[in-house]
Write a structure and sequence with these properties.
Strand order of the largest sheet: 4-5-10-7-9-8
Helix content: 40-55%
Order of helices and strands: HHEEEHEEHEHEHEEEHEHEHHHHH
Strand content: 15-25%
Number of domains: 2
Number of helices: 13
């Protein structure tokens, strides 16, 4: 008896009781759908966090000023002005694992254009900022090294600032005022959205750090910087860059071997890897919980197949009496079980994809349905059919033909 003939017999047997077959598949449908939906939620969250971290820049490290000790009182991180623009230049020049750096001087103020105004943060950086942050300029251009050197009053605006100040007006070439100082708008940054902390990255403006130091600071020291942003040559090189930066700054700041650092280096790769590991664990947990319903569905298939063997005992006896071998009977019941699980799996995939879309639309949760999760769900549903269908198929194949024919 050919495989195709056995499959046709299996389909005919299942179609005799359509409602029971449908109810038997229900457990597999719910199980596969739940696995796909739960995994898609986990993968969507993982992709969102990864995008938010990548929006900070590629292979980024942040160097912050350290704490300071004044008469026994220690301030927290950033409590001292220990970093300078020369430190940033030295890191870019002497650290082989570093691609580019930019000092950062932070300020804020009410920005005014015509009769419109908007309060925003202002970052003072150098001309390497787009390279370090991988942040393109959507309109106009970014300022040059000459602008940084001469402390030019030029500014590049974020998308949110443009929306609130320049409704229907091209901002490039216009003049805005911050703290009564005029700045010429030379460019607009591409839209980036929120970062990993939920802050709107587009609500910002960028000026040369020398301009921020000399004309926007409210205290006398205009030589220190608030932060240094560093871009490593690759993700793998961030750890090498971290060590090189620490060694160089200790040397430049003349820190003795037994003294603590007066700076802090934060590696975003650590944050990304920690977030990915957390999301992988959560995705595995969600998938495992949903996978329990697949096991329950498999048990349902086994129960129904055992009932089917009992109901069709006489039929099995007749088939074996006219020449069917035990292997043919076993194959028939095993294929019936696999057909139930595979059909349930296919419907479950559609159910899971639909559930993922509904979750994304109505609950505004990010979801991502991967082809790998669909492939694994199909394989798992087939495995469930084989595993839970084997015992009923073996029981049917082991029936004695004479006893089966006598069965009432």
């Amino acid at each position: 008896m050919s495989l195709w003939a056995i499959i046709k017999v299996a389909f005919r047997a299942l179609s005799r009781n359509k409602l029971r077959s449908a109810l038997t598949m229900l457990g597999i449908i719910i199980g596969v759908g739940a696995v796909i939906a739960m995994v898609s939620i986990g993968q969507g969250a993982q992709a969102t966090i990864q995008n938010q971290i990548e929006s900070q820049g590629t292979n980024i490290l942040y160097v912050w000023p350290g704490s300071r000790n004044m008469m026994g009182v220690r301030t927290g991180a950033g409590g001292s002005n220990t970093l300078t623009a020369e430190d940033a230049d030295a890191i870019a020049r002497e650290c082989s694992a570093v691609a580019a750096t930019t000092p950062v001087v932070r300020a804020s103020g009410q920005m005014v254009f015509g009769n419109q105004n908007w309060f925003t943060s202002v970052q003072g950086v150098n001309e390497k900022f787009p390279q370090v942050r991988k942040w393109a300029v959507a309109e106009g251009e970014f300022f040059s090294e000459a602008d940084v050197r001469t402390a030019a009053r030029v500014i590049v605006l974020g998308k949110r600032v443009v929306e609130n100040l320049f409704t229907g007006i091209d901002p490039v070439g216009q003049t805005v005022r911050i703290r009564n100082l005029p700045f010429r708008v030379i460019g607009v940054l591409a839209e980036r959205g929120q970062n990993a902390m939920g802050q709107d990255q587009d609500d910002t403006a960028v000026v040369p750090y020398t301009t921020a130091q000399k004309k926007m600071r409210s205290f006398s020291s205009n030589t220190s910087v608030d932060q240094i942003m560093v871009s490593a040559v690759s993700a793998e090189a961030t750890y090498t860059a971290e060590q090189q930066i620490a060694d160089l700054l200790r040397q430049r700041h003349r820190i003795q071997p037994n003294m603590p650092d007066d700076f802090n280096v934060r590696n975003l790769t650590d944050m990304a890897e920690a977030a990915q590991e957390t999301n992988r664990t959560m995705t595995l947990l969600l998938g495992s919980i949903a996978g329990v319903s697949l096991i329950v569905g498999g048990i349902g298939i086994m129960n129904i197949m055992l009932v089917s063997v009992t109901e069709r005992t006489r039929e099995i006896g007749i088939r074996m009496a006219i020449g069917a071998r035990s292997g043919h009977v076993r194959s028939q019941f095993l294929i019936e079980s696999v057909v139930l699980s595979v059909f349930g799996g296919v419907i479950g995939i559609l159910f899971g994809i639909g559930a993922s879309i509904a979750i994304s639309d109505f609950l505004q949760w990010p979801t991502f349905v991967s082809s790998m999760s669909i492939f694994i769900s199909v394989l798992f549903s087939i495995a469930v059919g084989v595993f839970f269908g084997y015992y009923p198929a073996r029981k049917a194949a082991s029936l004695d033909p004479i006893e089966a024919l006598r069965y009432e």
